[in-house]
Amino acid sequence: QVQLVESGGGSVQAGGSLRLSCAASGYTYSTACMAWFRQAPGKEREGVAGFNSGGGSTYYADSVKGRFTISRDNDKNTLYLQMNSLKPEDTAMYYCAARPPRRCGYSGFNGYEYWGQGTQVTVSS
User: Are 41 and 62 in contact (CB under 8 A)?
Assistant: First the structure.
């Protein structure tokens, strides 16, 4: 029953930066149980960035390593995605996601059940 509300999307030129935020409410889940996904037109939804089971380390899709940084503020129940050096191929709808406590310890991008509304990121050449 978690609710996820995203913000921060928009249009930016290649090489620019955006910072996405996701505020979670409802039943309290650790922000370590949350991750970022994206979906471009005509493509499958893919995981972008997430946390390991304890939230002490992070993992990223190969395509965004070195450019994107996921972070969290558990006191505010908020997730962030700092996106630097944006490329046109980063253009997609970006989603915040959460998985229930019984799946929070999973590695990778499996087990996510709750989704935000999505925020559009458009990167122009």
Answer: no
100 burial (CB, 10 Å; 0-12 / 13-18 / 19+) is middle
| Res 30 pLDDT > 90 | no
d(CA 68, CA 60): 8
Q: Which residues does 56 contact at the CB level (< 8 Å), separation at least 6?
A: none
Q: Which of 23, 24, 22 is nearest to 36 (CA)?
A: 22
pLDDT at 28 over 70: no
Strands 18-25 and 10-13: unpaired
Best-predicted range by mean pLDDT (22-36, 46-60, 66-80): 66-80
Are 80 and 71 a contacting pair, CB within 8 Å?
A: yes
